[in-house]
Amino acid sequence: MSDSITKIKNLLGIEGSVSHAEKLASTLGGIIGITLISLVSYQFTGASGPALIVPSMGASAVLVFAVPHGKLSQPWQLFGGHIISAFVGVSCYLLIPNLFLAGGMAVGLAIGAMHVTRCIHPPGGATALVAVVGGAKIHALGYGYILTPVLLNTIIIFITAVIFNNFFPWRRYPTAMMQFSDVPPEPEKKQAHIIDRKYIEQALQDIDLVIDLNADDLQQLFALALEHAETPNFSSDQIKLGHYYTNGKHGADWQVRQIIDEARSDDPKKDMVIYRIAEGKGLQSADSCTREEFAQWANRELYHK
Fold first, then answer.
1. 128 and 13 in a common domain
2. What is the predicted pLDDT for the residue at 192?
3. What does the angle CA 3 – CA 7 – CA 11 come to, to the nearest 5 degrees?
4. Non-local CB neighbours of 204 within 8 Å, separated by 6+ positions
5. Quick check: 295 and 235 in contact, CB under 8 A?
6. Cβ–Cβ contacts within 10 Å for residue 117, how many?
7. Residue 232, CB-side half-sphere exposure with 13 Å CA sphere
8. Taking CA 53 as the corner, what is the angle to CA 36 and CA 97, rounded to the nearest 5 degrees?
9. Which phi and psi angles does 251 have, rounded to 5°?
10. How many domains are contained in the chain?
């Protein structure tokens, strides 16, 4: 029965769920992002309907708030995808008399243009299409459609995404703002071997994001899977001065600690470490515990970028 359910899930593309904290953050981000776009755009333009907020911004909100670490969510994809597609859409409307053909050409050429400029952003297709089928108010804007509402909407959602996502210590947008990585700067070569499925699933839970995987994401995934397969539990010997560690939890309980001093002893009860909290709850505060207690707290090592 379980095998049948797994096959059905694979067929439908149903992936593992993320934490409740991640779901809540995504939901709040979407509410705040679209609300701010509407309010701020109205203050600037006084417009309504598609001239106030491009419908494709709803899809962009899904990406930057629900998948902030995804390749398709990053700033160049967000800005380039919308601006280039808006230009293509308006051009198609003005140059192609047949509305049906103009709509198809707008979306198709926008996809091609995003490929060429390396800024694939799925909502861009809708931005191009709205320029053709958005009605009289959109058509009256001409190429002004690129500036308002498209560029204005994009700027607002970008600023909101940067501020909002950085309220949550396990999220950073853009991803270049991430301070820590699960992958060492120069990862040691490991002998290839088959990784048990359960370790892959555990690594996916550790990432705790619904992501469109790129090379960096896969590298992180495999590094986590290897870590779970080879060293499922931390030992006190692995806790080293100057290194960073996380408890692997999510939401308010997530933390990154750095070992800043130590007092070594052969007696486990006297083998002490002093750590500071580098990210998460209690940021920049310091405390101490035995090396063994720290090892029990630690889920995995992180690497400062």
1. yes
2. 44
3. 170
4. 15, 16, 221
5. yes
6. 14
7. 7
8. 170
9. 75, -145
10. 3
Locate 239 and state its tokens. Answer: 């806790």
Which residue do the tokens 């909002």 mark?
Answer: 164
Q: How far apart are the first and last CA of the chain?
A: 45
Among 262, 199, 260, smallest CA distance to 236 is for 262
| Residues written for the chain | 305
Indicate if 101 and 188 belong to the same structural domain.
no
- Which pLDDT tens digit goes with each residue over 235-293? 888 899 999 999 887 777 889 999 999 999 999 999 999 999 998 888 889 999 999 99
* Each residue's pLDDT tens digit, 197-225: 566 667 767 767 555 665 566 666 777 67
* Judgement on whether residues 218 and 203 belong to the same structural domain of the protein: yes
Residue 10 has pLDDT above 60, yes or no: yes
| Confidence label for 191 from pLDDT (cuts 50, 70 and 90) | very low
DSSP-assigned letter for residue 20 = H
Give yes or no: residues 211 and 161 share one domain.
no
Structural contact between residues 200 and 221, judged by C-beta atoms closer than 8 angstroms: yes
Residues 15 and 74 in one domain: yes
Residue 181's pLDDT is what?
74
**pTM higher than 0.70:** yes
Contact predicate 273/289, CB 8 Å: yes
User: Same domain, yes or no, for 130 and 261?
Assistant: no
How far is residue 280's CA from residue 253's CA, in Å, rounded to a whole number? 7
Tokens of 170: 């396990």
- The single residue listed with the structure tokens 């048990």 is 196
Residue type, 21: A
Structure confidence by residue, pLDDT tens digits, 95-114: 999 999 999 999 999 999 99
Last residue of a domain, one of 230, 248, 270: 230
18 and 53 share one domain: yes
Helix H or strand E segment including 173: none
- The domain in which residue 135 lies consists of 2-176
223 and 243 both lie in a single domain: no
